[in-house]
Amino acid sequence: MVETIFDKIIAGDLPADKVYEDENVLAFRDINPQAPIHILVVPKKKVKDFIEIQHNDTTQTGIFFNAVSKVASVMGLEESGYRIVLNCGKNGQQTVEYLHAHILGERKMNWPPG
Ligand code: AMP
Q: Would you call 26 exposed, middle or buried from its count of C-beta atoms within 10 A (0-12, 13-18, 19+)?
């Protein structure tokens, strides 16, 4: 798999504004925020994209989504709500080939998304 910016952040070779970390995931602020709170959550065990999830064991997937929910709560977004975005592939506008969930909060989101 191609080495990405997120591989380097997890390895500690690139700095990131970390907001949460445990043995399974790392969460940090997006460098180009699209909302007052914009966090990226990445699994430490590399998954390329959402397509790959169907081939992984459900425990690994469950741990990831559990952590995404936890990070949103750690950021204080439980009451106001938030949006989770998982861009996938070319049409999904995924730019980093390393699975990541965007957590966007502290503003009202638009629907349909752009
Ligand atoms: P995506 O388009 O879904 O692949 O999202 C990739 C995200 O990574 C974008 O929102 C970028 O702003 C963000 N990003 C790229 N480089 C960095 C970095 N060094 N630190 C934090 N976020 C980054």
A: buried
Q: Cis (ω within 30 of 0) for the bond into 112? A: yes
Secondary structure letter of residue 109 according to DSSP: P
* Confidence band of 35 (pLDDT split at 50, 70, 90): very high
Q: Work out the mean pLDDT of the chain and round it to a whole number.
A: 97
The tens digit of pLDDT for each residue in 101-110 reads: 999 999 999 9
Q: Annotated catalytic, 38?
A: no
* Any atom of ligand 1 within 6 Å of the Cβ of 30: yes
Distance from residue 17's CA to the centre of ligand 1 (Å): 12
